[in-house]
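Worked example

This section walks through a single chain of length 425. The input is the sequence exactly as stored; nothing has been trimmed or padded.
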Amino acid sequence: MNTKRNGKISMVLQSISIIPLLFFGFLIMAIAYHQCTKTIHAEIEISLHNTIHNVQQLFDVAYPGDYKLMGETAFQLYKGDFDITDNYELIDKVKQDTELDITLFFDNTRILTTICDTEGRRIIGSAAPDIVTAQVLRKGETHFYTNTMINGQKYFSYYAPLYNQNNSIVGMFAVLKPGDSVAAAINKSMYPFLIADLLVMLLIAVCNYLYTRNFASAITKINRFLADVSGGNLNSELDNSVLRRNDEFGDIGRSAINMQHSLRRMIEQDTLTELFNRRSAHRKLQNILPKANMPGEAFSLCIADIDFFKKVNDTYGHDCGDIVLKKVADTLREHMYSCGFAVRWGGEEFLLVFDHMSACEAYDSLEALLNKIRALEIPYNDEILHVTMTFGLADGQTTDLQELLKIADDNLYQGKTAGRNQIVY
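Given that input, the structure is written out below as tokens.
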């Protein structure tokens, strides 16, 4: 009898302890699942928000100018002077680095996208969902959506309005993450909790606390890193504890590092003058040179040098030299805005590229520019400094860039030996 009674008591005690334990364990699991989902959703929103901001910056750097429809079809989209209708190189690179899909809408129509149907065709020409059109395109709001359906597949998406320089909304950017991968990430993150829950409630509580704190720490570190990168600090370093992780946070951290590397490679602006740098100039010239010999096309380039710039540095110091460089660069940028672009070629040398302008037209433009340079008043301490420049112009009648640069450089040298402050062509 006692044995049986003890057995029954044991079973009752076990039942009394197991039932609340299971109930509380399921409650903990429910709370943990909700918190994990909320945390991952918040992290995804942060990741998508920073990605869309970086993609917009990439487009502005790679293709300066406003978005506009041109050509014979409704889907021939230009950004500045660049036809980007079928140019998928940039968004495909971002997808490769981040595993996120990118879509560009003009108005509410998909023009560029990395999303493909089952046959591998890009889903272009379709319209954005009505709610997205109303909230983002019409009201100019940014929105994060957790249930965007595209071609029968669920996505987590972040939409942002697309502005031209006059602050008019002309379209939208969207960054999307497949819902299946998010669900898989959430389920995978819950496995340690489930195993711990089956062992003991205390272990569940401890693991839940440690794991949640670990999640929050990883998210904070990733968020801080992405904020630094989006703020322009491309030398920021992500905490190694995130990179050592073997979960989705580690994957996101490594994707963020890959994006940072891509940004460092693609952002090609001179830090001091904010002009295009030499590498960027070579890339842009590769797009212009093939048209050099086409009928009706014109192209010229010029290498310019600030006269006696070393004397400025030697007399007033490098801080003054930097001020002179910035002031000259501002003048070059303003002058070249409507006829081409300006590049800091190195030191006090600049490259001016006249797209759609013959050498004669470029010469006239340079005369006006030289007068602007001569008229510059550059205040430094209690003095007003004046500078002049020498320009070597070359007619773009060849696709050999090195030959063009040599002609321009030889003309520049001739101008400098002939007294400076002039244009040689």
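What to look for: The two ends are 116 Å apart (CA to CA).
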